[in-house]
Design brief:
The protein has 16 helices and eight strands. By secondary structure, it is of the alpha/beta class. Helix 9 packs antiparallel against helix 11, helix 12 packs across helix 13 and helix 15 runs antiparallel to helix 16.
Length: 337
């Protein structure tokens, strides 16, 4: 089928390679004419996914109408802060027969909406789905085995998305929990910043394991309060995505965290990473959601203090470790018999 990919960053190009491998007719859109010229000239993204060659059958364009025309599926791969503006631009070209799949991760700070909710608000009546999981572009582009999960408001759409993306190296599961999948994908970036900060401070594997474990606990508590499902946060878009983002050298959120742990501001860290660090944009939203739903999220709280209140990273770690003592799980009770 014909597929339009909106966004030509590393993830957009990796999915372009995947979908082209699967035999689809792919057109990639970018708002940046220089980026499109580079892709047309070299059939490779020289700066964001170097070494990954793109089939000559793929079309690159700055024309949104061309990217969307006759496409059965539109894949949204722009950074989360630009989802609303891109959805607004693309709305006139979307028909009721097309499906829009969001593969970006984040929560809109100003509205606390998930990204599919933003898309649905800007493109009324659109059929929307989501695909997420532990899937660094650098590895998908090299066709390394990867597993993800997709969802939509109905099973038929989810199965169609699964059929389009699944391959011998890219296994796709389906789930009815679209909200939980999006929350897991957005919130793990905030925890990954904390993991990177700990690395930058010189902490070890014990610290990383603690942040991952307590981090998924925070994500799950908030996710359940918002209507997500327990199984989702124990799955690919929950603990799976959290592990890879906290531990991988490919993770831009972890890399930015490392730089902040070494003393840089978040702006300096983002400049050095030279890519959008989604966790910075989701951190305030995560904190506001925790306050709205009255959910305790101490790691998220400390990340916000480091990012926006100039709290030194070592002081944030000390405050986390010296919190009032408590039980690990409040759902468990002692058998005193």
């Amino acid at each position: 089928m014909k597929i339009g990919i909106l966004g030509a960053g590393s993830w957009g190009i990796a999915l372009t390679v995947l979908l082209s491998d699967n035999g689809h007719d792919v057109t990639v859109w970018s708002i940046d004419p220089d980026e499109i010229e580079m892709l047309n000239t070299y059939r490779e993204h020289k700066t964001k996914l170097s070494g990954v060659k793109i089939s000559d059958n793929v079309c690159f364009t700055t024309d949104l109408g061309l990217a969307c025309k006759d496409a059965a599926l539109i894949v949204m791969v722009v950074p989360s802060p630009y989802i609303r503006s891109t959805a607004k631009m693309v709305a006139p070209y979307i028909t009721k027969d097309q499906i829009v799949v969001n593969v970006s991760k984040g929560i809109e700070e100003s509205t606390l909406m998930t990204l599919t909710e933003v898309i649905e608000e800007e493109i009324p009546g659109v059929c929307v789905g989501v695909l997420s999981g532990p899937s660094h572009a650098e590895e998908v582009g090299k066709r390394m085995p990867t597993t993800v999960v997709c969802s939509a408001h109905n099973q038929k759409t989810a199965l169609m998305i699964q059929d389009v993306f699944i391959s011998e190296y890219f296994r796709v599961y389906t789930s009815p929990d679209m909200l939980g999948i999006e929350l897991g994908g957005a919130l793990k970036n905030v925890i990954a910043l904390a993991a990177g900060i700990a690395d930058g401070l010189g902490c070890g594997d014990n610290t990383k394991a603690a942040l991952i474990t307590r981090g998924i606990s925070e994500i799950t508590r908030l996710g359940l309060a918002m209507g997500g499902k327990q199984e989702t946060f124990a799955g690919l878009s929950g603990i799976g995505d959290l592990i890879v983002t906290c531990a991988s050298t490919h993770s831009r959120n972890r890399r930015a965290g490392v730089l902040m742990g070494q003393g840089k501001t978040y702006k300096e860290a983002m400049d050095e990473v030279q890519m959008v660090v989604e966790g910075v944009y989701s951190a305030k939203a995560a904190l506001m959601l925790s306050q709205k739903y009255q959910i305790e999220m101490p790691i998220v709280e400390m990340v916000n203090k480091v990012l926006f209140e100039n709290l030194p990273a070592k002081d944030a770690l000390y405050l986390l470790l010296t919190r009032m003592r408590t039980v690990e799980s409040k759902s468990l009770s002692w058998d005193e018999s």
